[in-house]
Amino acid sequence: MERYVMIVAGLGFSTAATADSLRAAYELAARGCTIDALATVANKEGHKALTEFVRLTGLPLCYIRAAELAEQRTLTCSPQSQATYGTGSVAEASALAAAGSDARLVSPRHISNDRLATCAIAIGGQT
After folding, report:
1. At what angle do helices 48-57 and 19-29 cross, to 10 degrees?
2. To 5 degrees, how large is the angle CA 49–CA 44–CA 6?
3. Quick check: 44 and 94 in contact, CB under 8 A?
């Protein structure tokens, strides 16, 4: 039986981030990957930069509850993410949560040059 492999780009970003911030972080993290979906924390819904970035990529977006982020084991640790969401990286935790219970990171968080956005890639659905 063949299982579907899902590759998810998780996004973390500040309220000052722009669509260019998100794009820059995404391009750094997603090199060589075919991304199936985007994911981020639910309280970012409606953020102008996120809405624009999702429109530009044409990828589906999965919102992750903050409580689910804290359940994920991340490779990197941002003190701000830890204090706000209980996870070391919103990008990594979002990607892992959206990719499924057997997910693993294939690219830890990458930070945009303006330092306003991060992106990490997780793969799930492998046997």
Report:
1. 50
2. 90
3. no
Q: Where are the domains of the chain?
A: 6-124
Please write the tens of the pLDDT for every residue from 27-64. Answer: 999 998 999 999 999 999 999 999 999 999 999 999 99
Q: How far is residue 58's CA from residue 55's CA, in Å, rounded to a whole number?
A: 5
Q: Which two tokens stand for residue 116?
A: 């306003």
Query: φ and ψ at 82, to 5 degrees?
Result: -60, -45
Torsions phi, psi for 73 (to 5 deg): -95, 115
Chain segment 88-111, per-residue pLDDT in tens: 899 999 999 999 878 999 999 999
- Domain 6-124, second-level architecture: 2-Layer Sandwich (3.30)
51-60: which pairs have CB atoms within 8 A and are 24 or more residues apart? 52/19, 53/11, 53/19, 53/22, 53/23, 53/26, 56/19, 56/23, 57/26, 59/9, 59/35, 60/36
Cβ distance 93 to 111 under 8 Å? no
